[in-house]
Amino acid sequence: MAGSLTREDVSHVARLARLDLDDDELDRFTEQLAAVLDHAADVASLDTAGVPPTAHPLDLVNVLREDVPWTSLDRDEVLAMAPAAEDGRFRVPKILGDAP
Amino acid sequence: MTPPPAASPPAASPPAASPPGASPAGRQATPGVGTGPSAREIATAVRAGTRTARQVLEEHLARIAAHDGEVKAFLHLDGDAARAAADAVDLTIGKGQDPGPLAGVPVALKDNLCTRGVPTTAGSRILEGWLPPYDATVVQRLRDAGAVPLGKTNLDEFAMGSSTENSAYYPTRNPHDHSRVPGGSSGGSAAAVAAGFAPIALGSDTGGSVRQPAALCGVVGVKPTYGVVSRYGLIAFASSLDQIGPFARTVGDAALLLQVIAGHDPLDSTSWSGSLPDLVSATADGVDGLRVGIVTELTGDGIAPDVAGRLRDAADALADRGAKVDEVSVPAARYALSAYYLIAPAEASSNLSRYDGMRYGLRVTKDDVTQTNSATRSAGFGPEVKRRIMLGTYALSAGYYDAYYGQAQRARTLLIRDFAKAYEDFDVLLTPTSPTTAFPLGSKTQTPLSMYLSDVCTIPTNLAGHAAMSVPFGVGADGLPVGVQVLAPALGEPVMFRVAAALEEAAS
C-alpha cells in the first residue's frame, strides 16, 4: 500500500485540481487527509486477488437514441448566466500567447 | 443566490410568542415538530374540493414565516411562484379536471435540484446567483402531479457532509432541538418536513444523505434503487452513487412521492427502463413470513447503546408480526466506509472539474486562464469540497490509482457479493440508520473523519446500488429521534415498504 501522505503530496494534488492553498490550509489538509487515508489502509491492504473492480452498480452498455432533432436549451437563457458572453458565445480568457 | 434578506424567508419569527419546546430536557424545539397534515390527506381534500390548494399553501407559508427564522431549512423560499402553482391547481379543479396524485401538496426541494429560473446553489458560493435554464426531471414530475414547490432547502455544499454545517450560507437546526444538527447532507429538506413546513420533500443520497438526516429529524427517508429515479437536473457529486429520494412524515407519503418521481427518463442514460409496482398498496401487505436479517457488522462497535436498543425493539416488533428475524453477516460491510471515501471523492474530483469559471457561476479573473480557474475554484469552494476534490485527485493519481481507487472498486465487488449471499436467506436487512442521535452543532466540524463515520450504516447500500430507507423508531437516551434502516436488494422497494409500514405501525 501507499505510504503516509506528505505536505508535498497535498501541494501537488492541489495544483492538479486547480486549487490554491495557503500555508495554513496545506498544514490542516495534510493532517486531515492523512487521517482519512490511514483509515483507508484496511481497503488498501485487502486481499483482492482475482476480484474484478466494480465501477458502476448497473451493468450498462452505451445507451443510444434516435438521431432526431431535439429541443435545446435556450441560448440567451444559458448565456445570461455566463460570467461573460459576447456575440452569442461564452467569452473566456485568452488561452494562447501572443505571436512572437 | 442573493443571501439572506431576499433569499431566506422572513426572519420574523415571533420572539416571545413561540412557546418553549415541549421536551423533558427543556431544550428548544420547534413548536408542533413532527405534526401536520399528510400529503395523502391534502391531496384527497384538494381533489375532493373540500380544501383549496391555496389554503393549504398559506397555512404552510405561515408556519415557515413563524419558525424558519430559527430552523433555517430554506435557502430560497419562493412564495409568489408557490401561490401561482397553487392557484393553477385550484383552477384545474374548478374546471372539473384532476391535477394529479399530489394535488395541492407543498413540497420542499433540496437546492442541488435544478429549478428553471429559480436560484440553485448546491449550497456553494461558486453557484451563487445561478438560475438554471431547465428543471430537473423530478421537479417536472412533481409539477405534473399537481405538487406545489415551496423553494429550495439547505444542504452541505455539493451534498458533501452529514450535518448541513458545510453549507456556504448557514447551518440548519434540528427542529427537535435547535442546538443539534439536522444531519446531512439533505438537512434542510429533513428539517422542513420535521418542522411541518412541508409534508414531503426531496433530497439526494450519495452515502446516506437522505436516510441519515431523516433519522436525526424523526422523519421517513428513502434511497431508491440506483436508476429508479432520474438524475437529470441533479447537480452531480458521485455519479455511480447519487440517487434522488423522498422525505415524508409517513411511510405511505414516502411511497406516494416515490411513485410520482420514479420511472424511465430518456434524459438520464443510467435510468432504469422498467417500472415499480404499486408501493402504496404494498404498505398494507404486512410482514408475516418475511425473513429479516440484522447485519452483525453494522450493529456492534461504534453504535450507541440506546440506538442499538431501538434496533432490537424494532426487530422484536417485526417478529411479533410474523417475520422471521435472525442475524446475518455481511463481512465486506466493514470496508465499505473506506471504499466509499475513495470512490465518492474520486468521482467528485472529476464531476467538479466543470466549475472552471467559464460558462456559469463564479469567475475570479486573473492574468491567464489557469490562474483564473484556480482563483475561481479556491474562492468558490469551501473546505470540505476542497478536501474531497484533493482526496479524489490523489486516489486517482499516478502511483496511487491501484492502491486506492482500484482497491476500493474491488472492495465494492466484494460487498455486492456479500449482499447477494445475505439476500439468498433474507428478504430485507436491518441496521440502525445512524450510529447516534442528532449531535450538537459544531461537535464534528474540526475532524472530518469523525463526521464521515456518521455514514457507516448507510454507505453500503449506495456502493451496491440497492434500496434502503430510514423509519423513525422511538427515541434515544436524550429524547431525540432514532431511525431504523431497512435495506433491500435492487428493485426490492415493495418488500422494503412492507417492512417500513410495519415498523411505523409498531412505533406509533
Write a structural description.
- Chain A is mainly alpha-helical and 100 residues long.
- Chain A has 4 helices and 2 strands; from the N terminus they run H-H-H-H-E-E.
- Chain A has a domain at 7-44: Histone, subunit A, CATH 1.10.20.
- A two-stranded antiparallel sheet of chain A has the order 1-2.
- In chain A, a hairpin with a 2-residue loop joins strand 1 and strand 2.
- The N and C termini of chain A lie far apart (48 Å).
- The mean pLDDT of chain A is 90.
- Chain B is α/β, with parallel strands linked by helices and 508 residues long.
- Chain B has one domain (1-6, 34-508): Amidase signature (AS) domain (Amidase signature (AS) enzymes, Alpha-Beta Complex), CATH 3.90.1300.10.
- In chain B, strands 1-3-2-4-6-5-10-11-9-7-8 form an 11-stranded mixed beta sheet, sandwiched between helices.
- Mean pLDDT of chain B is 94; it is low at 1-22.
- The interface between A and B is large, with 53 and 70 residues.
**Number of contiguous helices of chain A:** 4
**Distance, first to last CA of chain B:** 40 Å
The CATH architecture term of the domain at 7-44 in chain A is Orthogonal Bundle
Overall spatial form of chain A: flat
Helical residues, percent of chain B: 25-40%
Strand order of the largest sheet of chain A: 1-2
Mean pLDDT of chain A: 90
CATH topology of the domain at 7-44 in chain A: Histone, subunit A
Q: Classify the oligomer.
A: heterodimer
What is the strand arrangement across the widest sheet of chain B? 1-3-2-4-6-5-10-11-9-7-8
Low-pLDDT ranges of chain B: 1-22
Q: Please, how many helices of chain B?
A: 17
Q: What level of helicity do the residues of chain A show?
A: 25-40%
Order of helices and strands of chain A: HHHHEE
Per CATH, which architecture of chain B?
Answer: Alpha-Beta Complex
Strand content of chain A: under 5%
> Rounded to an integer, what's the Rg of chain B over CA atoms?
21 Å
User: How many strands, what sense, and barrel or not for the largest sheet of chain B?
Assistant: 11 strands, mixed
The first-level CATH class of chain B is given as Alpha Beta
